[in-house]
Specification:
By secondary structure, the protein is an alpha+beta fold. The protein is 28% helix and 31% strand. It has nine helices and 19 strands. The strands form three sheets. Strands 1, 2, 3, 4, 5, 6, 7, 8, 9, 10, 11, 12, 13 and 14 form a 14-stranded mixed β-sheet that branches. Helix 1 crosses helix 3. The termini are far apart.
Length: 330
């Protein structure tokens, strides 16, 4: 008598249980063995785990800005595509999650992957680990018999690593190497900016030729390495609050989150996702702090919302949006 085949519903339920358990912290040795055995038991389980992880990210996005965030401050009067600006800001950008779910199951051999302007892509690797690549990002993937390696050439990527006792996972960036066993972390490498490593779960070990020993980067911490800082002078990883982690990772849902950044810095952030540029000739206006959660692909909507908030004028000239104080504003 053959064993009854596991239903898709029961697999999805079990995957959700595992995601919840992983979110609570590192697994014990017994739990780790049970998790690995469960993953290997049915080929459908890895896909179910990715779907559960994406669903968890969607549910977490409502917490991205913390309890002080009020989306009504940034409501705009127009209703693009049948939804109000208030609704688009309050909802957590479900389109990004739908696109991510559509990509689940895509398997990639050793290759280079590059995303274009405004493109965010979820890539599932051969072992079930995933990379979510932000706009204008390029990586080189090399899976061998002894190690799994991804070189981040430029851009930003969020990694979810499945443990493999026989092949460690490495991310190479700017002459250094990050090693992970099981972890969720983001690495950002932008031109002229420090390399920025943010660990959500698990821990990383950073190794470089100039370091006498690997540097541990634990869960809930961030390591920022200025381009001109020699590795021997690496700063200590700094603890970060959960709401800051969610804001930093809002791009996975197609959004940009701000919490008091100056307006000109927010304009520069939108330039990573769109050909439309926001110009702010008024220096005082450019220094105004902005807070909120916005669609990364809608710099015009963002400009309209902040113009309303700060009593400014918005002018559109082709691919340029100009924000300036009204003549009657102080």
């Amino acid at each position: 008598m053959t064993a009854e085949r596991e239903t898709s519903r029961s697999i999805d339920d079990r995957a959700a249980d595992w995601i919840a358990r992983l979110d609570r912290g590192p697994l014990s040795e017994d739990e780790n063995q049970a998790f690995e055995a469960w993953l290997q038991g049915d080929p459908r389980r890895r896909g179910a785990l990715l779907r559960a992880d994406a669903a968890a990210m969607l549910s977490e996005s409502a917490q991205a800005l913390g309890p002080q965030f009020d989306p009504r401050r940034f409501a705009a009067p127009e209703k693009p595509r049948g939804l109000s600006r208030r609704t688009l800001i309050a909802l957590a950008g479900t389109g990004g999650t739908v696109a991510a779910l559509a990509a689940i199951g895509f398997s990639l051999p050793a290759a280079a992957i590059t995303t274009g302007l405004g493109e965010v892509r979820l890539v599932t690797l051969d072992d079930g680990s995933t990379m979510m690549l932000n706009t204008q990002t390029s990586v080189q993937v090399d899976y061998g018999a002894r190690e799994r390696r991804v070189a981040l050439l430029y851009g930003e990527a969020f990694f979810t690593i499945v443990a493999d006792a026989h092949r460690p996972f490495f991310v190479d960036v700017t002459g250094a190497r990050l090693r992970a066993t099981r972890a969720r972390f983001r690495v950002r490498k932008l031109e002229g900016r420090p390399v920025d490593v943010l660990v959500d779960q698990g821990e990383l070990a950073l190794a470089a030729a100039q370091l006498p020993a690997p540097l541990t980067i634990p869960a809930g911490t961030r390591l920022v390495v200025p381009p001109d800082l020699p590795p021997v002078a690496l700063p200590t990883p700094q603890p970060v609050a959960p709401d800051l982690i969610m804001r930093e990772l809002a791009w996975r849902e197609g959004k940009i989150a701000f919490e008091g950044e100056p307006l000109d810095q927010a304009a520069a952030a939108f330039a990573r996702y769109s050909r439309i540029r926001i110009e702010i000739p008024d220096a005082a206006l450019a220094r105004e702090p902005v807070a909120g959660l916005f669609s990364a692909s809608d710099p015009v909507g963002f400009s309209r919302a902040v113009a309303q908030l700060f009593g400014a004028e918005m002018e559109r000239r082709g691919d340029v949006v100009i924000l300036r104080r009204r003549a009657d504003q102080p």
